[in-house]
Amino acid sequence: MQLTVDWSVDEDAAPPIGSDEMQGVLEAVLVREGVERPCFVSVSVVDDEKIRACNARWRGIDAATDVISLECERPNDPGLAEDEPCELGDIMIAPAFIERQAAEFGTTCADEFRIMLVHGMLHLLGYDHLDEGDAQAMEALENEILALIPTDDPALALEFTCHDEGGGAS
Hints:
Helix content: 40-55%
Number of domains: 1
Order of helices and strands: EHEHEEHHH
CATH class: Alpha Beta
CATH superfamily: Metalloproteases ("zincins"), catalytic domain
Number of helices: 5
Shape: globular
Structural class: alpha/beta
Number of strands: 4
Radius of gyration: 15 Å
């Protein structure tokens, strides 16, 4: 499995972990999902205003949020030739929002950021949390993947995958 990431980091939106670690988190998702096809993903680290505008445009929710994923292709799309790389899509992630959220959930900013990277990547692979059953399945998978990567708190527990409001994972 080969993952190529196109990084974009806004000047005023510094991520709490480095790009090598972010790459490792994204790769852990693909490894867990058994993706062997070369993949491309775009990751944009942005401020609250930029993610709010994206949330309003693509989801019709005029509020900042933690992460937004915009899917292009899935590794198992029947239209992809066997040796053709997959354009997974775009992940937009807002560290300032995540920092506030981390305090609310009692996690570190870095762990919350890791969680949201996993969450965003799973969305690109077709997972969602629109109903309680899907939310529980996605949360269990997130926990399984987080157990594979270094975190600040090895007993990290997720209780917030499914959100009904404008803020929160999307």
